[in-house]
Amino acid sequence: MRARRLIAAATVAALGVLSLGACGKSAPSVAAYVGDTTYSVARVDDIYDDVQATYGAAVRAQAAQTGATPPPEQQRAAVTRQDVLNLLVSIELGRRVVAAKGVTVPDQVTPEQLAPQLRVPAEAEYARLWAEWIDVSQALGASLPPAELSDDAIMAVYHAIEKTGAINSGLTVAQVREAFGQAGFVREATALSLALREEAQRAGASINPRYRPIGVPSVVSTGQALVFYSLPYIDHDGPVTDISTPQTPAASAAAGA
């Protein structure tokens, strides 16, 4: 895909690394804590197993129409457990921000609409979670003031999309800025990620080390298709790696002494 065609996003956002244990929460059977909400490793596994089972069944059913037997690797959806937890945490944080700001979330996106682009069956819970997340993130994106752009923020989004193979590699900052145009989706991404970071800190969110770094599920439109990817956390200036234990200026100075 030509770089200049990446001009619009349904939603982009990112959540940085959350340090497990920052709030004394470290049960190995727990994948993530967000306030009083807990996501177990078993819950993540259930959603992952469900999407793999439904995808495999759909592939086998389609192949059976021609008498073919697909190999095992063709019966696996390109979904990981990390993808699953990214959705669960982002949705929970998004719900909290929506409630705090009194934002109305219209029920617009359906699993059936997303399934062909996600390449998973609509009946999979994973597809339902994606539909919910897009509704939440779009509602928040429309309500938050867009953030200022920086080269680092622009390139953070570019490199995340670059990993999917959906945009040319090796572009310079100037080329990426030209490709993204007004980059409204990057501005929304930064504003949304700031709101999620703040909520994560208020809620005392923490992530099991096996699922770090965690990112917010993101999707960009090429004009012909949707590209699904995970963005590393970005703030006003660019990528950051840890939002769980922010230091005061005095503490930072002492640490560097």
Could you explain how this protein is built, in words?
By secondary structure, the protein is mainly α. The chain is 47% helix and 11% strand. The chain is built from 8 helices and 6 strands; from the N terminus they run βββαααααααβββα. It has helices spanning 41-64, 81-101, 111-118, 125-143, 151-162, 173-180, 184-203, 249-256; strands spanning 8-11, 30-34, 37-40, 206-207, 216-221, 226-231. The strands form 2 sheets. The chain has a 3-stranded antiparallel sheet. Strands 3-2-4 form a 3-stranded antiparallel sheet. Strand 5 and strand 6 (226-231) form a beta hairpin. Helix 4 (125-143) crosses helix 7. The longest helix is centred in the N-terminal third of the chain and has 24 residues, at 41-64. It starts with 7 loop residues before the first strand and ends with a helix. The model is unreliable at 1-14, 16-23 and 241-257 (pLDDT under 50).
Distance between the termini: 49 Å
Based on secondary structure, the structural category is mainly alpha
General shape: globular
Main beta sheet strand tally, sense and closure = 3 strands, antiparallel
Helix content: 40-55%
Beta-strand percentage range: 5-15%
How many strands appear in the DSSP assignment? 6
Q: How many alpha or pi helices? A: 8
Mean pLDDT: 82
Elements, N to C (H/E): EEEHHHHHHHEEEH
Integer-rounded radius of gyration: 19 Å
The stretches of 5 or more residues where confidence is low (pLDDT under 50) are 1-14, 16-23, 241-257
Strand order of the largest sheet: 1-5-6
